[in-house]
Specification:
By secondary structure, the chain is of the alpha+beta class. It has 7 helices and 13 strands. Helix 2 packs across helix 3 and helix 3 (72-86) packs across helix 5 (123-137). 26% of the residues are buried.
Length: 290
C-alpha cells in the first residue's frame, strides 16, 4: 500500500538527512527555541523568533477545539467517528514476489511500530486522537522518534492547533514547528507524518469538518449560555426597567438590588409575585425572552 511504502521510507530517511536546515529567520524569542536532535537526523535551527514564517490551521484557531467540550452535538459526532476509526487493528502490508500486497508478520518493524507506537499510547488511542484532530481541525500530525540507527521507534500525536507548517518555495515544506508552554520544537519534514483534509482555500491548512456548521454550533452554544444565565439570574428578563417618581440615592439603589436578588435570584425563585412601592413602576424595554 502507498501509506505503508511512505512509512517505510520515513523509517529509513533519518540516516540520509545531512546539512543545515534553516527553519525561520532570526527574531526575538530565540531563547525559547529548542534545537531538536532526532538522533541520526539532526535539525540545526539558527533562531526561531516571534516573527517566524509559518502557517497553521487557519480555520481552526482554538475555537474548534473548544467545541469538543462545549457542544454536545460536536462531541458526540467526533467521538463516534474517532471510536469507529480506532476500533479495527491496522495491518501493515508488504509487496509479495508477484508484486501484490501481503500481510506483514508481527516481527515486521512497521507492524511492531503500529502495534506499540510509544510507551504510553496504545494503537487505539493513537488513532482515536488522530481522527479527533482531523474531525476538529481538518489536520493531524505525528512526530516520529528514531533510534541511533535512524529507524523510527516511536510515534507521538501532536496537537494540531500547536503545529505550524513552514512552507518553502523549492521543497514545498521546509519543516514544522510545535509550540507549547512558550517553547518551540523544530521538526524536519521527514520527522512528521502529516494528515489533512483537502482545503481549497489554504493548501497548508486542512479543512475542518465543523466549518460548514460553525455558525449553527456557535448559535446553539450562545443560546444555552443565555438560558443558563437567564435562569441563574432570577428568571427575570434583563429588559425590565423600574421607574420611580423620585430620584433614589445610591444607598437606596444598592438596597433595592440586594432585596431583588435575595427574592428572585435562581430558577427555584422564579415566578414569584413582584411588589413595588408607591411611585414605582415596571416597564419592559424590548422583546421578552419568550
Amino acid at each position: 500500500m502507498r501509506a505503508t511504502a511512505t512509512l517505510l521510507g520515513l523509517m529509513r530517511a533519518g540516516a540520509r538527512v545531512a546539512g543545515r536546515v534553516l527553519l525561520a529567520r532570526v527574531g526575538p524569542g530565540a531563547e525559547n527555541t529548542i534545537e531538536r536532535s532526532n538522533r541520526a537526523a539532526r535539525v540545526l535551527v539558527d533562531q526561531i523568533g516571534d516573527e517566524f514564517a509559518g502557517t497553521g490551521v487557519s480555520q481552526a484557531a482554538g475555537r474548534y477545539g473548544d467545541f469538543y467540550s462545549t457542544s454536545a452535538a460536536v462531541h458526540a459526532a467526533v467521538r463516534v467517528r474517532a471510536s469507529a476509526v480506532a476500533r479495527p487493528p491496522l495491518q501493515a502490508q508488504e509487496l509479495g514476489p508477484d508484486g501484490g500486497a501481503l500481510p506483514a508478520g508481527p516481527g515486521h518493524p512497521l507492524q511492531a511500530l503500529l502495534d506499540h507506537p510509544n510507551p504510553f499510547w496504545t494503537p487505539a488511542e493513537l488513532w482515536h486522537a488522530t481522527e479527533t484532530y482531523l474531525s476538529l481541525w481538518g489536520a493531524a500530525f505525528w512526530g516520529l522518534e528514531r533510534d541511533e540507527s535512524g529507524v523510527v521507534k516511536e510515534i507521538w500525536p501532536l496537537r494540531t492547533d500547536r503545529v505550524r507548517v513552514l512552507p518553502d518555495e523549492k521543497s514545498y515544506v521546509r519543516g514544522f514547528v510545535y509550540e507549547n508552554a512558550g517553547k518551540r520544537v523544530a521538526y524536519l519534514p521527514e520527522e512528521v507524518v502529516w494528515f489533512r483534509h483537502f482545503n481549497p482555500v489554504d493548501e497548508f491548512a486542512g479543512a475542518s469538518s465543523i466549518a460548514p456548521s460553525r455558525a449553527a454550533v456557535e448559535m446553539a452554544s450562545s443560546a444555552l449560555l443565555f438560558n443558563r444565565s437567564f435562569f441563574s439570574n432570577s428568571a427575570t428578563p434583563s429588559d425590565l426597567a423600574i421607574t420611580t417618581d423620585e430620584t433614589p440615592t445610591d444607598e437606596q439603589v444598592a438596597e433595592f438590588y440586594d432585596r431583588w436578588e435575595a427574592r428572585f435570584s435562581g430558577a427555584g425563585r422564579a415566578h414569584r409575585p413582584l411588589v413595588l412601592g408607591s411611585g414605582m413602576d415596571a416597564k419592559r424595554l424590548g422583546l421578552s425572552h419568550r
